[in-house]
Model the fold of this input.
Amino acid sequence: MPDSVLVHSPATLSNLGCGFDVLGLALEAPYDAVRVTRSATPGVRIQHLDPYHLPTDPAHNVAGVALLALLKAAPDAVGFDVEITKGIKPGSGVGSSAASAVGAVVGANALLGNRFSKMELVDFAMEGEAVASGARHADNIAPAVFGGFTVVRAVTPAIDIVALAAPPLWVAVVHPQIEVKTSDSRKVLPADVPLKLATRQWANVAGLVAGFLTADYALIGRSLDDYIVEPARLPLIPGLAAARRRALAAGAIGGGISGSGPSIFMLNKTEATAQAVGTAMGEVFTELGIEFHVYVGPVATEGARVVSA
Ligand code: HSE
Done:
């Protein structure tokens, strides 16, 4: 058994339009690099080798909190030292906190002979997500652990994740450089939903899952719409309507807000279309005078994995 492992833990899209807190998709890139080393010193020590000034106190760091949860279930493990190099910018809406939390627990589990199941790793990592956003949601954690396309069927009383393969897809994400905190963008959400809207929404969720399972891109495209969460968050995401219009004109299948924003994602059949869609969405933010980054990449079939000892 090695004493130290390096894990790559991927960015993820959560919600996928209509599937608030339920649906998720793993991306090939960007990813966080997380080195986990066993230590004879009890507890967890975190070091960040990136420019983002994230907290290093394990009680306030997503990876630290996730590892403390794992240590509670494996007291014989004693302690871990963790070095995190974030490839995913915090607050970008592509599962930055989930990637670090998942990378840490996948690394620790490898050092413990993989004694925990993926479902248990989701449970530990979700403790970190609760610190980051104030809510125990697993829609970024699940695809970061399992890869592909995931459905969080339940988080209580027990975690129940359905891990599915995704058809070949290329994702274009535009990340405008504005801050939208997940905790704030959850505060604007309605507490109650009219039955009529709820019916349309769960019809779309069913259509989207069926579209993924049958690689029916047209069905995916017309099922992504979110009638409940996106309208409430729209004022927080400048350029969303224009970015969607131009992305669809450039050939995207469809898309929406990535997680709680501010990023916007679009699904595409080919790399060339995804590149064109990324450029088209970028032009909207150039016109608005807002700096942005564009990521283009394929969906990842695998979740976080050990890449070297
Ligand atoms: N499902 C979450 C939300 C994802 O939309 O608030 C945020 O990380």
About this structure: The chain has a mean pLDDT of 96. The CA atoms of residues 9 and 293 lie 20 Å apart.
